[in-house]
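quick q for whoever's on today - can somebody do inverse folding on this one?? i tried earlier but teh output was garbage lol. C-alpha cells:
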C-alpha cells in the first residue's frame, strides 16, 4: 500500500491536475487567472449546475454539494468585508479548490482508477447510503480539506500565485458565520440538526474542527513546498493521502448507520419534499 501511495504521489506531483479534467476548468478562465470577484460567480454557477440533479434524485452527495455551495456564496458576500492582503489570491484558490472537488467527483462517477482514496471513501458511503447525513457531510469536508487543500495551495505556489498564511487564516473569519444545517434539515433530513442546540457552543466546536483541519492543511502545503527533492516531496504527498484516508475510514465507521437501521426514513422524507415541490432545485435561495 505504501508503494502504491508513493507511486500515485509521484504522478500527482508531475501532472497539473489531480484526476480527470471535465472540460469545465474554472481556473483557466481569464477572470479566475487574475483573481476577479466575477470568478466566484462562475464557481457558484457550476456548483448550482451540479447540485440540482443531485437534489432531484435525493442523492446523498447533495448534502455536501449544497453545503459547499452555501460556503462559496458567503465567501463572495463577505469578500469586501474581510481585510485580505491579496483578495485575488483567495479568489484563485476558491476556483482551483472547487476544481479539485469536481475532478474527484467526475473521476469516481466515470469509473476512473485515480480517485483520491479519501474521496473514494466519501463517494462510496454516499452511493451505498451507508452513513448518516452528518457522515455524508463530514466525509466530504475531510477529503476536501485534509486531502485536497495542501495540494491546491502547492499548485497555486507552483503557478506563482501563493496564498499567504495570513490570508489563509482570514478565510476562517467568514467560515465562522456559516451554518446551513437548518436548510439541510428542511430539504433532506430533519434529524441532521437534532444536536444543534441553542447558542453558539456547538457551532464553535464544529468550526474548531474545520479550523484545525485547515491549519494542518497549510502545514502540509509547507512540507510539500519545502521538500528538498522530488522523492521527498512524493513521500509527503503519500503521507497526506494516507492520513486523509485513515481519517475517512474512521469517520465512516463512526457515522455508519447502526445495525438494523438505514437511510430509508431520510430518503422518504426527501422524496416527499421533491414530490411536493418543497425541494425545488430551481429555487435554491439560501435559508439562514
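ok took a stab at it. sequence:
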Amino acid at each position: 500500500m505504501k508503494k502504491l501511495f508513493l507511486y500515485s504521489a509521484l504522478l500527482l506531483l508531475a501532472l497539473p491536475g489531480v484526476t480527470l479534467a471535465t472540460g469545465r476548468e474554472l481556473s483557466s478562465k481569464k477572470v479566475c487567472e487574475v483573481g476577479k470577484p466575477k470568478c466566484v460567480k462562475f464557481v457558484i454557477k457550476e456548483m448550482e449546475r451540479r447540485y440540482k440533479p443531485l437534489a432531484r434524485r435525493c442523492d446523498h452527495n447533495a448534502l455536501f454539494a449544497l453545503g459547499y455551495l452555501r460556503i462559496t456564496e458567503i465567501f463572495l458576500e463577505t469578500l469586501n468585508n474581510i481585510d485580505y492582503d491579496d483578495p485575488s489570491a483567495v479568489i484563485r484558490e476558491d476556483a482551483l479548490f472547487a476544481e479539485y472537488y469536481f475532478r474527484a467527483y467526475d473521476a469516481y462517477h466515470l469509473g476512473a482508477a485515480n480517485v483520491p482514496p479519501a474521496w473514494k471513501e466519501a463517494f462510496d458511503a454516499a452511493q451505498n447510503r451507508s452513513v448518516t447525513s452528518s457522515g455524508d457531510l463530514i466525509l466530504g469536508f475531510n477529503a476536501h480539506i485534509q486531502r485536497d487543500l495542501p495540494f491546491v495551495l502547492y499548485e497555486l505556489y507552483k503557478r506563482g500565485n501563493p496564498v499567504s498564511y495570513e490570508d489563509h487564516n482570514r478565510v476562517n473569519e467568514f467560515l465562522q458565520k456559516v451554518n446551513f444545517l437548518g436548510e439541510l434539515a428542511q430539504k433532506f433530513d430533519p434529524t441532521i440538526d437534532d444536536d444543534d442546540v441553542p447558542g453558539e457552543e456547538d457551532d464553535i466546536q464544529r468550526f474548531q474542527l474545520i479550523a484545525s483541519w485547515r491549519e494542518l492543511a497549510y502545514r502540509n502545503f509547507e512540507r510539500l513546498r519545502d521538500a528538498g527533492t522530488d522523492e521527498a516531496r512524493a513521500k509527503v504527498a503519500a503521507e497526506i493521502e494516507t492520513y486523509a484516508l485513515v481519517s475517512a475510514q474512521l469517520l465512516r465507521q463512526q457515522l455508519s448507520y447502526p445495525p438494523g437501521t438505514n437511510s430509508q426514513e431520510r430518503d422518504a422524507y426527501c422524496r416527499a419534499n421533491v414530490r411536493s415541490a418543497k425541494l425545488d432545485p430551481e429555487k435554491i435561495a439560501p435559508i439562514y
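fwiw Residues 122 and 139 are 5 Å apart (CA to CA). also The chain has one domain: 16-198+212-260. so keep that in mind when u check it
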